[in-house]
Design goal:
With about 130 residues, this protein is α+β, with helices and mostly antiparallel strands. The chain has one domain: Beta Polymerase, domain 2 (2-Layer Sandwich), CATH 3.30.460. It has helices at about 10-25, 55-70, 105-110, 110-115, and strands at about 30-35, 45-50, 80, 90, 95-100, 120. The chain has a six-stranded mixed sheet. The radius of gyration is 13 Å and the shape is globular.
Length: about 130
């Protein structure tokens, strides 16, 4: 992507977020959601949340997404953070956070419910 990702340039930020979300959809992550947190969070403008089916898939998605975003010029701060052992990994992409979680962790932590004030964005390449 041409351009530098700067917090405040909403159109450019959303393009970067959708690149991450589309990569996850294409890589068979389940139930990928993008939550626009504009005005609701000081830590990120967007969350990307996706379900993984195994630890192997989680590791593969983290590695692949890091490479994909680096190719697109989207920065990732200090690699992946494994928040809860093998069930939840967070990628901090400065202005958006990617949460990769098992189905059980996603249900238990309920990020979509916690951030209900955020707006769910449509991911163009996702069928549902």
């Amino acid at each position: 992507m041409d351009g530098t990702y700067v917090r405040g340039d909403k159109a450019l930020l959303e393009v970067g977020v959708m690149k991450a979300a589309n990569y996850l959809v294409e890589s068979k992550a389940i139930d990928v959601k993008v939550i626009d947190l504009d005005g609701h969070s000081s830590i990120a403008d967007y969350f990307v949340v996706a379900t993984v089916t195994s630890y192997a898939q989680l590791r593969g998605l983290v590695r692949g997404l890091q490479e994909h975003l680096a190719e697109k010029g989207i920065p990732i701060k200090s690699g992946a953070k494994h928040l809860t052992e093998d069930i939840w990994t967070l990628l901090d992409c400065e202005y958006f956070l990617v949460h990769l979680m098992t189905e059980e962790a996603r249900e238990f932590y309920g990020l979509e419910k916690l951030w209900f004030e955020g707006k769910l964005l449509k991911i163009p390449q996702q069928d549902s």
